[in-house]
Amino acid sequence: MFNENNFKQFIKTKIKWMGDRKASIQEDDLLNAMCIFTQSLPISLNKKSSSCNTLLGKIFQLTNKPTCIQYNHYFLYLFKYKWCSRKKHIEHINNFGKCKTRWNNLDDTCYNCRINKRQNSFEQRKEYNENYRKNNREYFANQQAKRRAAKLNATLTWLTKQDLIEIEDVYYQSQEYTRLLNEEYQVDHIVPLQGKNVCGLHVPWNLQILTTTENIKKSNRLIDNL
Ligand SMILES: [Zn+2]
After folding, report:
1. Dist. CA 70 → ligand 1 center (Å)
2. Measured between alpha carbons, how far is 21 from 110 in angstroms, rounded to an integer?
3. How far is the CA of 81 from the centre of ligand 1 (A)?
4. In this predicted structure, what is the pLDDT of residue 202?
5. I want to staple 19 with a disulfide (CB 3.0 to 4.6 A). Which of 24, 110, 123, 162 is the partner?
6. How far, in Å, is the centroid of ligand 1 from the Cα of 134?
7. From the CA of 117, how far away is ligand 1's center (Å)?
8. Contact between 207 and 190 (Cβ < 8 Å)
9. Where does the pLDDT of residue 169 fall: very low under 50, low under 70, confident under 90, or very high at 90 and above?
10. pTM score, whole prediction
């Protein structure tokens, strides 16, 4: 586990210069500031970023530090720990994967966060798919009816593009009715696709919009008539 006090002691050993009395900052303030990773620079030093970096350069006099890396992150790495940018926490560098493009060859996100992210994205995708189905019911209802109709050879091959759009419109309309009238509406084939004596067609002029109860009544009536 990361220990902030040990980390501060570690940084203390790296201090080469604390300045003259006027210009210097308090050592405690410096060490505290170095433990803040959420800010881009230790702002509590009360310096502008450029002068702050110059000051830190004077204090630590590091020769190997990559210039684009902040002092606190660099020291944390030397301390064998790393800031995980995903959940904003500190983990041992052994808990990070490899990433060749980064200065320390370490991934930005720790293993645990990576696994969590994968699980979350899987659940998010599942939820998205479910919602998509719910919000595009007319599309799926139409597709389902089309499949059913095709199975029954009920779809005429000479239907025009306009006819297909009309069919889609009917399904869309039924969903609009459901939304606006607070009652479940369905698309019904006037002459059923699977009638006993006659088979209806999946064509615009054989479609009507009924409430679910009307539709059930109708199919019951048809069964009674058989
Ligand atoms: Zn993490």
Report:
1. 19
2. 42
3. 12
4. 85
5. 24
6. 34
7. 10
8. yes
9. very high
10. 0.55
